Amino acid sequence: MIRECTDEDFEEIFNIINDAAMAYKGVIPPDRWHEPYMTKAELQTQIEDGVRFSCYVDNNEIIGVMGIQDKADVVLIRHAYVRTKRRNKGIGSILLQELIRDAEKPILIGTWKAAIWAISFYENHGFRLVPEEEKNRLLKKYWSIPDRQVETSVVLVDRRYYELEHF
Hints:
Blueprint: E1 2-4, H1 10-20, H2 40-48, E2 52-58, E3 61-71, E4 74-82, H3 91-100, E5 107-112, H4 116-124, E6 128-129, H5 132-142, H6 147-151, E7 153-157, H7 159-163
């Protein structure tokens, strides 16, 4: 079952993000890795900045989370994670489909350039990588991340992105 996360789910969201993000350790640049991957303060800031999390619940256990953030003329998919022990069972796909189902704006997704599995996941769901120059522009416009993270990231977009002339 998918439901919107509540304040009571904060600890589980935090735990799932940091469990699943271990996949990045040794993959993303060492200067971008830290433990925990996301602190509680960073998670709280993300929520205060408008990231709304949905969770996938199985037998009363949250096993996957994914956030969505409205950013004026686009929607961002943020912080998509599934517990390590429950990966590759379609949970991420179900969450993604639920979050983007009713979207009327272009959807953008940022991830690490080295996270080939994540890029493939989004491409399998119809998203396309944008060229480097466009990626840099989008990351600086819609995300608040350090320049080093911009250098080491990619952006994927859905079909709506290319259908709008103002991009």
